[in-house]
Amino acid sequence: MQQDRSTGWRLGTPRVMQFRYQVLGVVMGAILAVVFARLFMAAYPVLLQDQTVLKADQQPAGWSSAMTYKFVGVLRSLTEDLPHQRTAIGAGIAAGLAIELLRKWLRPRNFVLDAIVLPSPYALSFGGFVNLPTALWLGAGGVAGSLLASRAPRRRDVPEDMSSASLFGGGLIAGDALAAVGIGVASLLAVLA
Fold this sequence. Notes:
By secondary structure, the chain is mostly helical. The chain is 74% helix and 0% strand. It is globular, with a radius of gyration of 20 Å.
């Protein structure tokens, strides 16, 4: 959303209009997410498995999804009060705040410091609940982005989220998402036909 708002800022689009369209997009996305989730879970029962309780050798091949973990975690926490979960959330917030404060204070421009020693709090938490092959691919993208950012001159008239690496990465994510939706719809039609 921030990238869209920065793009709109650069093009001179009023922020109020951007916000209204983004709210409309969020509402429509929420509705369609439920529709597509029900459709795909009916066609692929493997998606109904709780991957957070399965052992490594029981994990379904080809169905690694960070969102699965998020949804299951939220749903489980609504029905079970787990004190250790609150402690873990507090520790995660404290660690994320400390890392981000260090990153802002040091302003890492060194590749090793930026990508390995002080990764973003999101990257650190993401690596904790996504399986290793998926995390390595995403980590490689972050490393490539950091290398590009360290070599490119910084333009002061462009917001940070409008950098070439950010826009290129956003394009890859969008392209991958569209390809996955296309493949998923084609597979679903094949199953239903």
